[in-house]
Design brief:
The longest helix has 58 residues. The chain starts with 8 loop residues before the first helix and ends with a helix. It folds into 4 domains: 29 residues; 131 residues, no CATH class; 162 residues, Sandwich (Jelly Rolls), CATH 2.60.120.200; 222 residues, no CATH class. The radius of gyration is 40 Å and the shape is elongated. A hairpin with a 7-residue loop joins strand 9 and strand 10. It has 563 residues and is of the alpha+beta class. The chain is built from 9 helices and 22 strands. Strands 7, 9, 10, 12, 17, 18, 19 and 21 form an 8-stranded antiparallel sheet that branches.
């Protein structure tokens, strides 16, 4: 506590109370457990939830765009899911964790989700090398769930709910809706339901299906008198002669199909929306339940419940399971504190090794191009300035001073002066002591040839290293494209291997791969502008040198040639 020996007693007490409040407040805001170094906030969008949903089971797809796998153990054993209060541990099951390809799926059980809770969400903790796994399939335990099939890769027909007997010959598809899925080839799945279900009291069936093609007629569900058929592209739910229809399906697209019956009132849902409703009287259901009679395509996340679920539960399932679902929003702790992570931060964090190498090469090319453009621009500016000064001397010279213009002149960057010196040097070689210098046509041709040679050398010097700019212009985009193509290939290969086709898993990798193309264009475009500018200036200097050579040779011939 604060030392208060010289402070009145009531002020001392007040200070100590404030200090204790601050300490308590600080402790209350502490994270769940300091042994875990990293946490990520996951927010739940409750805008479409009109009724409270209890014990909601939500799949969480982790990938390089929303989770830093380098902070977690290689097998994900240190993952913990904590409620939004940052105190209560939530039950979860880690279905898959691939640290190499940076993809994972875990199921989280949320005790209560309501539209009244605008701050609904949870924390995912990681970063404890000593932690043991607390993942448990107990999250799937629900007294109302009679059957649940996720078509796990290890045992494709395992019921994770009440262990009902399931038979069939589906083909495992690794790249399913969530992890793996089952492909049916007109041969149904048959589940033997042990306990009778009074459908009038409550019954719900939910599944994700992806038809390979739209058949004339197939049966998605056959359970006693209850039939759910796909007739053409429309759903048809019937019990005897009574039926309700609604909803249209498309081939090669995942659709969420659900039906719910309570009190004799049946509702049919497609992709989270109610498409049909009506009265259907159903007797007790038990025994064999067939799914996919005559159906060709994929099926995933099948649930059978002995209670009629609400529209909010259906919407939550559709939004949470779907590949384009917007139920969850991810943000790191740093983003929470700093107001959100930038898009470029996400891109750089998602770069593959090949893209990093390509971008590194392009960065070197950019630095070289920038150095060439700067050095050439400085040289051209100095050359133009010195040439202008020497040209004045030349134009103002007389016959007596024409051959002595270089005396005492300090113009180190003047190309005209160098041409002049080359010509005068050839003239001096032909001088003889005591006689007047007179040059014939052959001598003047030789002098001009020497000056022309110097012009070529100066022109080569001016164009030196310009080839590096042309390499950057033509090679930069191709290098960037190479990085993009390889990055896209790696991203899709990782997605296929992990079986997660969620757009949120694909987008960061694709966007990061495109960053290589952007880098290539970022090298090529400045180099293109710089090259054209420098080439134009060098061309002007070359033209000035050619004109000067003609003028110098002409005046020298007038002065020194034979009459």
């Amino acid at each position: 506590m604060i030392q208060t020996s010289r402070i009145p007693s009531f002020i001392s007490k007040l200070i100590n109370i404030v200090a204790m409040v601050l300490l308590v407040s600080s402790a209350a805001n502490a994270t769940w457990n300091d042994a875990w170094e990293t946490r990520n906030k996951v927010s739940i969008n409750t805008s479409e939830i009109t009724e409270s949903v209890s014990n909601a089971l939500i799949p969480v797809r982790l990938h390089s765009g929303n989770f830093d796998f380098s902070t977690a153990n290689i097998d994900g054993s240190d993952l913990r899911v904590i409620a939004s209060d940052d105190k209560t541990e939530l039950k979860f099951f880690l279905e898959s964790f691939d640290a190499t390809n940076e993809l994972a799926v875990l199921w989280v059980q949320i005790p209560q989700i309501s539209s009244a809770n605008k701050d609904a969400g949870f924390w995912i903790y990681s970063g404890n090398a000593e932690a043991k796994s607390s993942s448990s399939p107990a999250v799937f335990s629900d007294k109302n769930v009679m059957l649940r099939l996720s078509f796990n890769e290890k045992n494709i027909l395992t019921d994770s709910a009440q262990q009902q007997a399931v038979t069939g010959s589906p083909v495992l598809e690794k790249a399913g809706l969530i992890g793996s899925s089952a492909r049916l080839e007109k041969t149904p799945l048959v589940a033997t339901i042990k306990s009778p279900i009074d459908a009038n009291q409550g019954f719900t069936w939910s599944a994700w299906i992806k038809p390979s093609a739209i058949p004339q007629s197939s049966t998605l569900l056959s359970f006693g008198q209850l039939l759910l058929k796909l007739e053409g592209d429309a759903l048809n739910l019937s019990v005897g002669a009574a039926q309700i229809k609604g909803g249209q399906l498309s081939p090669s697209i995942w659709h969420h199909v659900a039906l719910s019956i309570a009190g004799g009132n049946a509702k049919l849902y497609l992709n989270g929306k109610e498409t049909a409703t009506g009265q259907l009287s159903v007797s007790a259901l038990s025994g064999a339940m067939q799914m996919g009679v005559g159906f060709t395509g994929e099926i995933d996340e099948v649930e059978l419940l002995d209670v009629g679920k609400s529209a909010s539960w259906v919407k939550l399932t559709n939004s949470g399971h779907g590949v384009e679902g917007k139920l969850l929003t991810f943000s790191s702790e740093e983003a929470e504190e700093e107001g959100g992570e930038s898009y470029f931060g996400i891109l750089f964090n998602s770069l593959t090794v090949d893209a990093e190498i390509v971008i590194g090469i392009l960065a070197v090319m950019f630095l070289i191009s920038a150095w060439v453009m700067y050095s050439k621009a400085m040289l051209i500016i100095k050359t133009d300035k010195d040439n202008a000064e020497f040209l004045k001397l030349f134009q103002n010279s007389t016959s007596q001073t024409l051959l002595n213009l270089d005396a005492g002149v300090n113009l180190p960057n003047s190309t005209l002066l160098e041409l002049y010196k080359a010509g005068v040097s050839e003239i001096r070689k032909r001088e003889k002591a005591g006689t007047k210098l007179v040059l014939g046509a052959a001598s003047m041709s030789a002098i001009k040839a020497s000056v022309d040679a110097e012009l070529v050398r100066k022109n080569q010097s001016l164009n030196n290293l310009m080839v590096l700019l042309t390499i950057a212009i033509s090679g930069g985009p191709f290098l960037g494209l190479l990085g993009t193509v390889v990055g896209v290939m790696i991203t899709f290969a990782a997605i296929a291997a992990a079986g997660d086709v969620n757009v949120n898993a694909i987008a960061p990798g694709i966007a990061a791969a495109l960053l290589a193309t952007v880098a290539g264009l970022g090298v090529a475009i400045p180099a293109l502008f710089g090259y054209n500018y420098l080439a134009s200036r060098i061309k002007n200097i070359t033209i000035s040198m050619q004109i000067f050579v003609d003028e110098f040779i002409t005046r020298s011939a007038e002065l020194l040639s034979e009459d």
